[in-house]
Structure formats: C-alpha cells, structure tokens
Amino acid sequence: MKAEHFAGNRKRSALLASLCAVAVALVALSAVAFAEQPDILSRDNVLRDPDIPDLGNPTGDLTVVEFFDYQCPYCKKLAPDLAKLVQEDGKIRLVLKDWPIFGDASVLAAKMALASKYQNKYAAAHDALIGANGKLTAAIINDLLAKAGVDVATAASDLQAHEKSIDDLLARNSDQADAFGFDGTPGFVVGTFRVPGVVEMKVFKMIVADARAAAKKKQ
Asked: Percentage of the chain surpassing pLDDT 70?
C-alpha cells in the first residue's frame, strides 16, 4: 500500500507540475501591439518581411514568427518539434527571423542561410544549420551547407552581391526582438501573441489554438 500511495503521489505531483508550467507559460503571453504606421513593429514588417522566405503553408491562417540563433541550444532542441507541428497542422505559415547573438559564427551562419535563398535552398540550409551539433565555424558551416545541396560558392557570391540587403534584414530582426523585449533566443510571435522564451510543445499547441480563437473573434 505504501508503494502504491507513493506512486500515486508522484503522478499527482508530476501532473501538478505540468499544469503549473502551462499556467506560467500562458501568463507570460502578452498581446502584440502592432503599430499602425509603417515602423519597425508594423504588422507587415513583423509578419510579412518580403526578404524572409515563407515556410510551412504560405497561405496559412496563422503566422508563427521565431527569433532564433543557429547556435542556440534551446532553438536546436525545439526545431524538430516545431517542424513537426507545422507539418501536422498544415495551416501554419512559419517565418524564421535570424537573430545571431552567439557571436561571429552565428552571424556567418545566418548570412549564408539567407544567401542560400537566391538559389531556392533556404529551407535546406536552415535545416542543416539548426540540426548541427556543437559550435559552428566557417568550415563547418560550408560543409553542412554543401551536404544539404547548397552550392556554397554561389551562396558566398550571392552574399557578397546582396550583403547590404541581408545586413539590413538582420538589423530589422534585432530591432524587433529588442522592441518585443526578448531577453534571448528563442522568442516567438504567434498570431497576435508575444511568447518569450522556451515553451513546451504541448503548451505551444495551446497557444496556437488560443491565437486562432483570438483571430476569429476579431473577424
């Protein structure tokens, strides 16, 4: 009886901890106050930056924006679950905003991934870099991209040709992350909800559902 009682207590404690985690995460949510004027936090600048390729469903009913770094361990851990959610949901438009805050290698990785879009390899480049283990270097970045089917020489040439545009994009991403008050990566905007920090996927799914419900109320 004592063993059964102890096991029951453990299950109840685990459930309580899970419910508390959900409550804390939802309390951390705040509505995004999109600016009506075309400044850094306008709806179009945040959700529809023309220099960032759409992933997921380009015509989906909900946009999820992630501010991330290719060397952020939390971003890496979350990436497979986020990709699975986007695929299974089928109606999420995913916007990935490079916010390289982990040093020069992160900056280079972000720039090379963004340069890969000019050969329609952005998604492959992103998957290769976010799935890498350990710290990145220029050599590792090039090797990962090559193995993902990216023409590295062409990407480097495109980076040089479009460097100002890419630098401006990274600056916009950084300004937006700062304006949203994100302390680090990852940070999310889900519909009209700001989601700071790491969130368990079961909680993230609840946020997606709440964001859709909020959007319907405004229609």
From this structure: 84
Domain tally, the chain: 1
pLDDT digits (tens, 9 = 90+) for 112-156: 999 999 999 999 999 999 999 999 999 999 999 999 999 999 999
Span 46-75, pLDDT tens digits: 999 999 999 999 999 999 999 999 999 999
- pLDDT at residue 157 greater than cutoff 80: yes
Both ends of the chain: CA-CA distance in Å?
56
Main-chain phi, psi angles of 42, to 5 degrees: -70, 155
Buried (b) or exposed (e) across 56-92, using 16+ Cβ within 10 A? bbeebebbbbbbbbbbbeebbebbeebbebbeebeeb
| CATH number of the domain residue 175 falls in | 3.40.30.10
What pLDDT does 44 receive? 86
Q: Assess if residue 194 is contained within a domain.
A: yes
Q: Put residue 63 in one of left, alpha, beta given phi > 0 → left and psi -120 to 50 → alpha.
A: beta
Domain encompassing residue 103: 30-218
